[in-house]
Design a protein that fits this description.
The chain has 60 residues and is an all-alpha fold. It has helices at residues 7-21, 26-59. The longest helix has 34 residues, at 26-59. The model has no long low-confidence stretch (mean pLDDT 88).
């Protein structure tokens, strides 16, 4: 999922994020990031379905 990032690298990134944003902001940032990823995934799935639907119409 994260490519070549190992556990140590992820811990370092999380530690830096904790120092920069503080412990009270991290849950809000995580929630916003999750919501953004979810919306992006929904929109890309919609576009994919639309494109495949158009391709199937042209084949018929």
């Amino acid at each position: 999922m994260f490519g070549r990032l190992g556990t140590g690298e992820l811990m370092l990134i999380l530690g830096i994020a904790l120092v920069v944003f503080g412990p009270s902001k991290l849950p809000e940032l995580g929630k916003a990031l999750g919501k953004g990823i979810r919306e992006f995934k929904q929109h890309t799935e919609g576009v994919t379905k639309e494109i495949t639907g158009e391709a199937e119409k042209k084949e018929i």
